[in-house]
Structure formats: C-alpha cells, structure tokens
Amino acid sequence: MSGKPRLTYINGRGRMESIRWLLAAAGVEFEEVFLQTREQLLKLGQDGSLLFHQLPLVEIDGMKLVQCRAILSYIAGKYNLYGKDLKERALIDMYVEGISDLMQLILMFPFSPPEAKEKKIATIAEKATERYFPVFEKVLKQHGQDFLVGNRFSWADVQLMEAILAVEEKVPSVLSGFPQLQAFKTKMSNMPTIKKFLQPGSPRKPPPDENYVATVMKIFKLD
Amino acid sequence: MAAKPVLYYFDGRGKMESVRWLLAAAGVEFEEVFLETREQYEKLLQSGVLMFQQVPMVEIDGMKLVQTRAILNYIAGKYNLYGKDLKERALIDMYVGGTDDLMGFLLSFPFLSAEDKVKQCAFVVQKATSRYFPAYEKVLKDHGQDFLVGNRLSWADIHLLEAILMLEEKKSDALSGFPLLQAFKKRISSIPTIKKFLAPGSKRKPISDDKYVETVRRVLRMYYDVKPN
C-alpha cells in the first residue's frame, strides 16, 4: 500500500487529464488504473466505489472522490494551490470555471462527426481568442505578475497552461496576439514540476485518437 | 455597513436560482437587476463587468463574480455552509456536483418543444430515481444524521432540497421509495430561513414559462433550437 492517490479512468485524457496536471504540478506522484471493459466499470459501481456510477474516481486520503471539481478543489486546497483567503479562492474559481467552459469544447471535439470537426475547431479558436484568452492576457498585463492570482502559483495557472497547450494542438497560432500569455506559457513550461510533466515518460496522456473514442463509447455505452 | 449582494440575471430561475436559494438559506438579503432588453445586456457587456460576457453575475464584497460555481463556493465559504475542513468540503463538493448535474438536465427544459419536454421529463426522472436519489438516500442511511455532511447544515443540504422540489414539480411522487429523503425534505424545509424562502412573497422564482423563454432568447439571441438529452 503506497498511500499515493490512485486515479481510475480510461487510458486517455478526458475528464481526468486536469487532475493529472494538478497533481503533477503539485509534485505529487500517483497511481493509475485504466478501465478497458464495461464490465470493469459496472463492477466498480456494484462495489459502491462510484457515488454516481461515473468516472473519474480518485482515491485519496481514505476517500473515494468523484466529480472532477470536487477532486480538483480538494487537491488544490491540500497542496496550497487555492489562494490565501476566500477572495483569492473566488478569483481562482472564476478563472478555472471559465477555462473549464473552453476545455469542454475540446473534450467533446473527438466525439463530433467528421463533417462537423472543421466548424468545431473554428468555434474553439473563436472562443479562445475572443472570450477567454483576452481575459487572462488583461489580468497578467494589469498586475504585471508572473501568476494569475495573489503573486503565487495556483490551480488557475495550471489550468490555464493546460488549456493553452490543448488549444494550440488544434489551433497552432492561437497565442499570436497574446504576448503576456506567450511569456506565461514559457514561464510555466520552465517550472520544474510542469517541465517534468511535459517530458516523455510522464503520466501526461496524448491527444485523443479513434481508439480512445471507441473505448469511451464502449465503456460508457454512449450512442 | 456592507451593501447587499446584487444579482444580475433574468427574472426567472435558470442558473441563478441556486444562488438565490443559498443566500436565502444563509439569511442574507439581496437585490436583483433583471435583464429584460438586448440594449441593457449590450450595455452590461460594454461596461466590462461580465468577465466572460455571461450572466449570472453577482456583485458581492466589492467583487463582480461570474461563473455560478465560483459564486456559490464564495457564498458557502463566507456563511459557514462549506464544512469545517478540506475533507468535509470535498464531500460537499461531491454531493453538490451530483445535484448540479441533475438540475442541469432541467435547465434546457423551458426551451424545448412540447414533445421534447415529455422526453426530457422522463429522462430526468429516470436519472433522479436510479442514480442520484439512491446515492443521497444511502449517505443519510449510512450515518443516520439529519444533514448530509458533518452533522450540520451545509450547502449540500440546501442544494439537495432545491433538486428534490424541482423533481417533484415534474413528478409529484418522485421521492416514493426514498423514506429518508422524504424526512430530509420535511426537516430542511422547516428551517426558518428556508421556510421563509418557500413561502409566497420571497425571491424564489416560479417555474420558467414562455415569457421567460422569450426574454432569454431576445436578450441573448441564443437558445432558439435546443435539443433534449
């Protein structure tokens, strides 16, 4: 028994990737269990491990946590990545929730039909460059600090970094016009824990492919 | 003297209703600005007070908070409805996540065609009775306490009551087979601040009607073609 957090999901990004990012950024090693069949999911449900019969599941500190936000908030709180008071936490929550709306588009992208994919990429590009990235560009410009909130590394920085890289995979030039975010991306990439996570051999998962989509459809029985 | 929080939204439930519930349960009076015209909304957008160009927005303690979850987290934390430590907070977050998913299925309901409403109703009731209500019934059964977390009223209880009442509006006997939830419902409803919110004349909003749908579509220029789950 290692005492390390244990993540149960599919071998792919999906809704677990933000959790992998946050644990890695906090310098926390973790174990992973990858589901491959629907039977495995149903068995977990029968065991009582899944409160709402859904993944992600993270076993940490004696708890079986489900619901991404609950998991992420707990990790952020435990590893001092959630600001110093309620007001900083509110800022972090606002930023993270906004980014999460953008990430939702990326999450759903692999499941859209081929003919819709080009339009979806255009939507991602539009939302990123007109709604979300300008906000963070402005925040960084206004206070001139390295981190989004409280002059200190937080969950918000990790989430923004993940989002920037995920959008760039779809829209490579998306940061042109956002010099603060370009500098932010460079700084984040050089933080030791993040640098390690971005290297080959880390728990970071590759972009979803057809195999991933097929596995998700099979295990979660989506039509 | 602290100013009252000000809620910016439509005159209807939508995503703001959980905020009204939580403030009311915490005994906090608040004011509301209702969006009624496109011009009003564009003026708000131009003024830069909507961080991601969206409502809900709540002015509270000198902040202009957006993103429903951020708003609710702040209120819960400020008014001691968020548990006593990180672990209780995690439980509350988990439980609220579930009721949020459940109530989320009803957000689009007013915008659906009559035929799709029937489908969506069946879908939500099925999810409630097979996935969500059993989970909360078990939580209450396992610890035998009056409240979901830490033997004390928290945001999780308020959110669950809101979800139960919304489901009962769709199926009046939604709680049949869940005796502990029935007792929970009575108990939480009789808490003075909540009882007051449930009485006529409070800021609680009625079920969204065609007028609400029309207003949202007119102001946002969106949601013309909403599909059921």
TrEMBL record, chain A:
Its EC number is 2.5.1.18. Residues 3-83 form the GST N-terminal domain. The keyword Transferase applies. GO terms for molecular function: glutathione transferase activity. The keyword Transferase applies. Keywords: Transferase. InterPro entries: Glutathione-S-Trfase_C-like, Glutathione-S-Trfase_C_sf, Glutathione_S-Trfase, Glutathione_S-Trfase_N, GST_alpha, GST_C, GST_superfamily, Thioredoxin-like_sf. One of its GO terms (biological process) is xenobiotic metabolic process. Residues 85-209 form the GST C-terminal domain. It comes from the Eukaryota. It is an enzyme of class 2 (transferase). It holds the Pfam family GST_C_3. PROSITE patterns: GST_CTER, GST_NTER. Belongs to the GST superfamily. Alpha family. This is glutathione transferase. It comes from Phasianus colchicus (Common pheasant). The gene is LOC116240798.
From TrEMBL, chain B:
This is glutathione transferase. GO terms for biological process: glutathione metabolic process; xenobiotic metabolic process. Its EC number is 2.5.1.18. Residues 85-207 form the GST C-terminal domain. It holds the Pfam family GST_N. Residues 3-83 form the GST N-terminal domain. SUPFAM superfamilies: GST C-terminal domain-like (SSF47616), Thioredoxin-like (SSF52833). InterPro entries: Glutathione-S-Trfase_C-like (IPR010987), Glutathione-S-Trfase_C_sf (IPR036282), Glutathione_S-Trfase (IPR040079), Glutathione_S-Trfase_N (IPR004045), GST_alpha (IPR003080), GST_C (IPR004046), GST_superfamily (IPR050213), Thioredoxin-like_sf (IPR036249). It comes from the Eukaryota. The gene is LOC116240399. Belongs to the GST superfamily. Alpha family. Keywords: Transferase. It comes from Phasianus colchicus. Transmembrane segments: none annotated. One of its GO terms (molecular function) is glutathione transferase activity.
